Amino acid sequence: MDRGTERDGAVTEHAASGRIPLAVVVVDREGLVSHWSSGARRLFGAAKEEALGRPAVDLLPVSGALPDDDDPSPYGAYGAYDGLGHDLETSLDGRLYYPAAGRARLTVPERDRVDVLWWAYPLVGPGPERLLVLGADVGRLRQEDPDDDPGFERVAPAFALHTDFPGAEELAHKLPEILPSMSVEESARIVGQILELGYPVLEFSQNDRVPVTPDWGVPRRVERRARRERAARAAAQGLPLPQEYSEEGEDLEYVAVRERLEFLNEVSGRIGTSLDLSRTIIEVSRAVVPRFTDVAGTYLREQVVAGEGFPDGAPDTTTMWHRVAVEHTDEPGRWDDVVPVGEAMPFPAHTPFFQCMTSGEPVLVPRISEEMGHAIASQFEKRDIRPLITGRSMLVVPLKARTVVLGFMILLRHPERVEFNDMDRVTGAELAARAGLVLDNARMYTYQESVAETLQDSMLPHIPPRMAGCDIATRYLPGTLLGRIGGDWFDSVKLPGARTALVVGDVMGHGLNSAAMMGQLRTAVQTMAALDLPPAQLLRNLDDLAQRLGDTYLATCLYAVYDPIAGELHIANAGHIPPVLVRADDGRSELLDLPTGAPIGVGGVPFEAVRVRVEPGDRLVMCTDGLVEVRGEDIGVGLATLSESAAHPAASMDDACDTIIRALNTRGGRKDDVALLLARLNGIGSEDVAAWRIALDPVEVGRARAVVREQLHDWGLSRLASTAEQLVSELVTNAVRHSHGRPVELRLVRGDTLLCEVDDDDHELPTLLHAGSCDDHGRGLRVVSTLAREWGASRTNAGKTVWFELTIPRR
Q: Do 636 and 771 lie in a common domain?
């Protein structure tokens, strides 16, 4: 580190500033830390999250006296002195009226003893900031001294007028680099106070002082790299060959062009390794730092980031640009607060960024002047970015694809590095063209994947977790093949009689065609299930439909109807893997032995259904073969693992699904999509069901109302009695009027809702009619539709069932 000398008030012409890694801390009016730089974290050992909001006296050795023994600092004992004497109060508990400086030796956790220099400035103004503290590690200074001068033991922090040194104006301009991120007005206010109170300096003796400027750890370029840059610059300007290349006899233009080609070849090999848009953005940004530039900021249009379609129209001053990546060689965290990744903003027409994105051509700014730096900084509210950009060379390159600007990159070089030139402009344009193509490929893939996932999600049902007498949990895992979309599905359908249909199916193949076929089959199953067709007949009709749709695709399907009152499963299988039934009494699991049947679409093959007795608490597991089938492994292994994992106890249905997925999805080789449906068969007890036979006599309608009222009173549902009586009266009256000879059956089922069913032997379903003011009939079903939570009608073997539900009020 160079030292400036001062003799008899005159400062030597060659006095240089001391570049020091600095810790920057701001303390608010309550004595709490409000800013804690990454340099402070390294110097004092506390992370930013730990420091913010804590009393500064607990973290900083900024005091004129030793701490009390009964209140030790978390850093251990330290010795301190300040250069202002005992008459000046420098404690953070009091008020600091003058700048203070000192040197302290402290013990930082997990580090050796650290020798710290500090400067503290009182801040005056409308903001909450009340104290600015700068700190430096004396040990680091000693390491940077080429002579390892023992005089560093005598170095002390002090203050001086910045005008006492050569380059005073430059010192004043560099001062904002020391400050934390803040608005231009706040920065100017604090800079004025610091310049008035005294510039921070290192004092080696009374006449040997060095002004302090921050060292943000900018790496120095190796001499070979510097020679190449000088050669490239000379080639672009048509200057004579530099001496170091003249001696080697190399052709200057050839060297410069080769350098650019090597760089572009290297960049091309480093980007585009993935179709993931986020990863591609990071690859593009990191490819140019530090070889081509010191700072690279990448901005993309809003539609590109959102994974939407191709942006329409040329960008304008209202176009939102998202900052998606910032790579740099500055101190870690130096740019994070000022230009955070993820921020979206428009750019005015007078900026070089707007010129680049509207013209689609690179924009070169050899040096960012103070005027331009101020104009750019004005776009960043409450943040002063001038110290980060002023004096740097800037190149703005567009990221284009198919003549449309997707975004742009802002490239900045440090002031001490050679400026961007015309050859760099050409190199940047080629770089942006390659990067734009890679980003567009990733964007298109992201867009297509989003479309596929949206289609898949729209085709899969949103099943409620509770149906009549059972709890349901589901999982869908997209396949690992390109497209991430397939033909697997699951479903549940509410049926008359408090029953539930449970469905799992798999269209063979992958891609959009399989998904489209799946959507048609699922809709057909929903429609036929609502007609309350028996399982075997439903699969027969589904097979006929598949034949009419075409013979291109086959599908497997497992269809089960659960009757919680009878405690029974009625199941039919069309070429699907069998379900697993886990018994509640002993936890035993078994693969149900079902007639296999042929896949849907084969045609001409009969389907059989079986009935399986179940008890409350039993669990039924239905899945597609993608979960149990692995290439090169017998499917029996997967089925055995499925049975074993299904039997594991779980706290909830979702936990049970996760257990099965973990057990089977960790095996390698799965490429197919997976549909999983798990149902806990809770049943409906006899105490929650009441049934009556009603004779075909209009007088019996009154009895129906009476038995319903009495039953609801016994169940503690008296608040529903009035509405239920009225609706039962309408349905029973219609049934008695249209029945042919068999008595009407009335049933109430108490579950999550109150279900009322009325059966008769008439096959004609009732229709909701519009009744005029003079009509005698047609109002009954409209009353039911108005007052009931849900209602419906379906045909049965003996006739039809008309039903309604009422919401049970919470107690």
A: no
Q: Which of 475, 472, 391 is nearest to 675 (CA)?
A: 475
In the structure encoding, which two tokens stand for residue 684, read together? 């409906």
Cβ neighbors of 45 (< 8 A, separation 6 or more) are 75, 108, 109, 110, 111
SS (H, E, C) 438-487: HHHHHHHHHHHHHHHHHHHHHHCCCCCCEECCEEEEEEEECCCCCCCCEE
pLDDT value of position 504: 96
User: CB neighbours (10 Å) of residue 422?
Assistant: 12
- Which residue among 666, 681, 696 closes a domain? 681
Q: Please give the radius of gyration of the chain, using alpha carbons only, rounded to the nearest integer.
A: 40
Q: Are residues 466 and 603 in the same domain?
A: yes
Provide the whole-model pTM: 0.56
CATH number at 479 reads 3.60.40.10
Phi first, then psi, for residue 87 (nearest 5°) are -80, -15
Residue 410's CB: how many other CB atoms inside 10 A? 23
Q: Look at the block and give the residue holding tokens 């080789």.
A: 669
Q: Do residues 32 and 43 lie in contact, with contact meaning Cβ atoms separated by under 8 Å?
A: no
Q: Band of the pLDDT at 541, cuts 50, 70, 90?
A: very high
Same domain for 612 and 497: yes
Q: List the single range of 242-251, 321-330, 481-490 with lowest mean pLDDT.
A: 242-251
State the distance between the two ends of the chain, measured CA to CA, in whole angstroms. Answer: 80
For the chain, the helix, strand and coil percentages under 3-state DSSP, each to the nearest 5: 35, 25, 40
CA 437-441-442 angle, to 5 degrees, is 120
Domain membership of residue 455 (yes or no) is no
Q: Report the distance separating Cα 804 and Cα 728, nearest Å.
A: 9
List the single range of 46-60, 425-439, 678-692 with lowest mean pLDDT.
Answer: 425-439
Phi, psi of 326 (to 5 degrees): -140, 115
The residue-averaged pLDDT of 310-325 equals 77
3-class SS string, 569-597: EEEEEECCCCCEEECCCCCCEEECCCCCC
Q: Domain check: are 715 and 662 in the same one?
A: no
Encoding tokens for residue 7? 């003799």
Lowest mean per-residue pLDDT among 284-288, 319-323, 572-576, 668-672: 668-672
Give every CB contact of residue 500 below 8 A, 6+ residues apart in sequence: 467, 468, 469, 470, 492, 493, 494, 561, 562, 564, 679
Going from the C-alpha of 86 to that of each of 115, 264, 493, the distances in angstroms are 21, 63, 85
Q: How many domains does the chain have?
A: 4
Distance CA 435, CA 397 (A): 10
Q: Are 39 and 22 in contact (CB under 8 A)?
A: yes
Q: How far apart are CA 565 and CA 373, in angstroms?
A: 78
One domain for residues 696 and 675: no
- Distance in angstroms (rounded) separating the CA atoms of residues 99 and 83: 11
Note the helical H segments in 629-714: 635-646, 653-665, 700-714
Domain that holds residue 625: 460-681
The β-bridge relationship of strands 199-205 and 10-11 is unpaired
Range of 298-302, 334-338, 651-655 with top mean pLDDT: 651-655
- Please write the tens of the pLDDT for every residue from 606-641: 899 999 999 999 999 999 988 888 777 788 888 998
Burial of 629 (0-12, 13-18, 19+ CB in 10 A): buried
Q: CATH number of the domain that 784 lies in?
A: 3.30.565.10
Q: Is the pLDDT assigned to residue 205 strictly greater than 90?
A: no
Full DSSP string of 761-781: S--SPP---PPPTT-SSS-HH
Question: Looking at residue 144, which CATH number applies to its domain?
Answer: 3.30.450.20
pLDDT tens digit sequence for 659-713: 998 888 766 556 678 899 999 999 999 999 999 999 999 899 999 999 999 999 9
